[in-house]
Each structure stands twice: as structure tokens, then as C-alpha cells.
Amino acid sequence: MKNWLKKYDLLILILLIGLGLRIYHLGHESLWLDEAVTISGAGTNLANIFHSFWTMDYNPSLFWLILHYWMQIFGTSEFATRFLSVIFGLGDLLMVYMIGKLIFNRKIGLLATLLMALSIFHIAYSQEARMYSLLMFLSLASMYFFIELLNKKGVKYIYGYIIFSILALYSHTFGFLIIIVQNIYYFSLYQKLKKTLKLKYWILIQALLMVLILPWFILLYRQIAISDNDVWKLPFKLINLAYIVEDFAGSRLLLLIFTLSILAAVFSEISFKRLLTRGKNIFLLLLWLVVGIVTPFFISYFFASMYLSAKYSIVALPAFYLLVAKGLSNIKNKYFFNLILMAIIILASINIWSYFSDTHKDQWREAVAYIESRAETKDLLVFVYGYHQIPYDYYGKRHDLEKKSLLTNYRVLKTEDLNNLNLKAENQQKIWIILNQPIENCNYQEVFDNYLKGYSLSQFTQFYNIELFEYTK
After folding, report:
1. How far is Cα 103 from Cα 106, in angstroms, rounded to an integer?
2. Residues 6+ positions from 264 with CB-CB distance below 8 Å
3. Given a cut of 80, is residue 305 above it in pLDDT?
4. How far apart are CA 177 and CA 145, in angstroms?
């Protein structure tokens, strides 16, 4: 036991630091819209969960299923529901260490794990009751067994790869990114890899994955084809690629240090031919990073315009930190290495302090408390989108308030939607208009003033990402 602790003491310390940072303030902020929708959906029966899977959601329901049983045991509080993501986030750190040790050495594995443990990007998505830390964990496990499969012959590696790959595919629509990386890598190095994994076996494995995930892709295509959801559609901008990498790093200064580290890792295997031979692990990580970041943008530009966030490239985060760790390990001067590492830790600590000091999530808890402390019986609450009632109902305690929504589907609100709405509000002394994630190019007050004849705006209140208009007769 003592020898085991001595062997893994640094890893255990890093994991404990990572766990502490992910538990801290876990239930401090309100649930935001997507978290509330996830908890509400997972809290229903299995039939309703699968109904959402078949008809509504753009992502598979694996996380909802896991959360469904988790909440039956631990409850539906902010802390309880988010703690599930903390567990997967801790698993992410462990898998990064295992992959780093597998393809390089223990030092690089530990260094990459430390960097990701201090990453505010990873902390944020490990503190959210959504599927992103699960997606990363399953993608990492798939990659781990993929690497083992290429280095060793064994049925257990085939089983491990298939199981975690299909689970990754069913955890998020972008779970396929890790499969793309693996296939590009395999066919790029086919002449060398065919000794341990023959082409026919690889094709059979990929065919099996395609058969298993095909039902979901058919449903996804159907949902996209019939959807008129344009609320999140934004123009493609190349500069957003740089913003994603900046989000990965945590700050521009850290991005500079990390970029230089990655360049050091790549230039140590300067030629492409050398990358495919001696530097094949660097080549794998570069593929992982580039494909994970660029593919969502490629899809948005050529196929389906969508709102693009760094979270959709989260599967590329481990590759980013493994490349950084490899570059830092090339520093031979011990004192200079310690100086750079200390600077990274200080800058990361400043980011962490800032992260926990700021508000990042919709303040539904505060907004609902404000409304219910001021509203009178039979006041009318109007939600711009029907979905916005879900986080309200999570926190709401009063049942004497009437509720209506302007739109039932998620699309940009147009002026005529309000002007043509037959809202019978003659009996209400006060109407509350509730806006979450405000719509661009809409003068809310002017629209509401023109429609709500006989009412005047008595109070306008803002919470983080939420706006409340109080109209009184």
C-alpha cells in the first residue's frame, strides 16, 4: 500500500486539487436554461426521455438516462445534479494521465493532468449538469483503447474500443469527432499499423460502429430537416477558431505560453515524414486538436449554420494540453522549466479566482425570488419562449400566478408575433414579461408598449442574462 501511494502520490495530489476546484461553489449559481431543461427531461419517466430522443433533442439521450437514475438516488438540487459531471470531469483528468503516460511518459502524463486540472474551461464544464464532461471522458476512453489496440493484439482492447466509442457517439452529436481522428490517423499510418491491426478488422470495427449509431443519425437528419429553429444561427467567422483555442488556454497570456510550447513539441519532429514515423504520437495529437476544432466550423459553413461555442470542440481539449505538456518537457534547463511551470500555475490561479468571483450562469434563482416576492395573486407571467418556463418552475414555489408563453418553438422573435398575439389580459393588474437570452434587433419595450394598451411599464429589472418587464394597469 505504501509503495502504491508513493508511486502515485503526485497523481493523487493533482486529482484531489482537480476535485476540490470542481466541487467548490458547485451549487452557488443558479441553473441556467440548458441545465434546467436537462434536469426536467431526465426527471420524467423513461418513455418521455426516449420521446425527446426520438422527436426533439439534437443530441442523444445517454446523459439524460444516467442523470435519471442519479437523481433518484441523490436528488435534484443544483449540487447533486452537477456532481455527476464532476465525477466524469475527474475521470477526464485520470484518462489524460493514462494517455500521456501511454504515448510519452509519466512526467508528461502528470504535467498534462495538472494543466487540465487548473483549466477554467474544463472546471466550468465539469460544474454543469450537461453532457460535456461525459462526452470527453468517453472520447478519452475510446482514444486510450484505440492506442492500445494499435500497439497490442488482444480481444479486450477491441471490446473496450467498441464499447466506449459507441457510448461516446450516444453521449453527444459531436461524439463522432474522435472517430474521425482515429480513422485519419489509421489510414495515414496504415503501412506501419497493419502489422498489429489489419485493414479488414479495422473496417469491420468501424462498420459495426456505423450500424450501431445509424438509428441516431437517421433521427438527427429528420430533426434538422423539419426544424425551423434559427435562433442560434450565426454567420461563420474564421476568427472564432482562435477564440476557441483562447478559451482552452484560459487567457491570452497563457495562450502565448501554450502556443510556444506546442510549437516546441511540433518542431522537435519538424518534417512531416518524421511526424509519421518517430513523431507519430505528436501527429495523432495534432490531428485530434485540429479535427476537434475545425470540424464543427466546417459543418456550420457548408451544411447547417449553427451557433458555435468552444464546448462543441471540448473533445480536443486533452490533445491541446498533452501537446503543451510535451513541449514543456522539452525544456532541458531545470530552473527554466520550474520558472515557466510556476508562471503557468500563477496565471491559471488568477483565472480560477476570477472565474469563481464572476457570474456565468442565468440568474433564475434570483429572478424567480424577485418576482414571487413582488407579484400579486393572479398576476400574469409571460415567457417569450415556452422553454423559459422550465427553469422558472424549478425555482418557483407559488401556484397562484398565471403563466403563458409567446412562442412554443425556439426561433427568433419577430414583432408580428407579439402584435398578432391574442393575449387576453384584461383581468390582470400586472403583467410580467420574462426574457432569457435576449433576442437581437428587437426593441422590447417599444413592442410591448404598443401591444399592451392600457398598461404602462412600471419597472424594468435585469439579472444576469434575464430581463423582467413589469407592466401595471
Report:
1. 9
2. 327, 328, 330, 331
3. no
4. 16
